[in-house]
Amino acid sequence: MSNSFSLPIMRASTTQAATPQAMDLIFIEGFVGETVIGIHESELHRPQPLVIDVHAGLPHARACNTDRIADTIDYGVVTERLRRLLVEHRLTLLEAFAEKIAEILIDEFGARWVRVKVVKPRKFADVSAVGVQIERIAPEPESRRSGHSAAVVQLLASGMLPGKR
């Protein structure tokens, strides 16, 4: 089984050309848990196993220089969060479940890019696994977006209107 990574190109700002930014990947592969999830009657009454792979990207994690767990994503804390999600969620589709994991990694752990794979092993007798894999990029921090908007507002306030000379 090969894992090929296609990391996103991150942009420094909307006015600059695309420049690749190195990403450090923190990953958890083969996390196994049980939960009630599915759309068929047979899936709604007892937990079934899920296998979860998570890859979370950070632009050059500070932990590379500081050697402090507080400066990166602690995969021990992520696995605890996954265990809690397995118990608390009320989702029916693997797509929505994977999306929730991606949101958690971005919102709670500060990942800039994530890949989440969720698999139901042995769902069907003649198939080893079914599942979904998604990739998400975190929205730009508010400070970057507001800088561009502030420049437009400043131009408008100075009398420079688009299309007018």
> Cα distance, first to last residue?
60 Å
Strand order of the largest sheet: 1-2-3-4
| Number of domain modules | 1
Compute the number of strand runs: 4
The whole-number mean of residue pLDDT values reads 83
Percentage beta strand: 25-35%
Helix content: 25-40%
Classified in CATH, the superfamily is GTP cyclohydrolase I, C-terminal domain/NADPH-dependent 7-cyano-7-deazaguanine reductase, N-terminal domain
Radius of gyration: 21 Å
Give the helices and strands as they follow along the chain.
Answer: EEHHHEEH
- In DSSP terms (H or I, runs of 4 or more residues), the helix count works out at 4
CATH C-level class is Alpha Beta
Question: Spans of 5+ residues with little confidence (pLDDT < 50)?
Answer: 9-19
CATH topology: GTP Cyclohydrolase I, domain 2
Shape, please? elongated
- What class do helices, strands and sheet pairing give? alpha+beta
CATH architecture: 2-Layer Sandwich
What do these coordinates show?
A hairpin with a 2-residue loop joins strand 3 (113-124) and strand 4. The protein has 165 residues and is α+β, with helices and mostly antiparallel strands. The protein has helices spanning 63-66, 75-88, 94-107, 142-157, and strands at residues 23-35, 48-59, 113-124, 127-137. The longest helix has 16 residues, at 142-157.
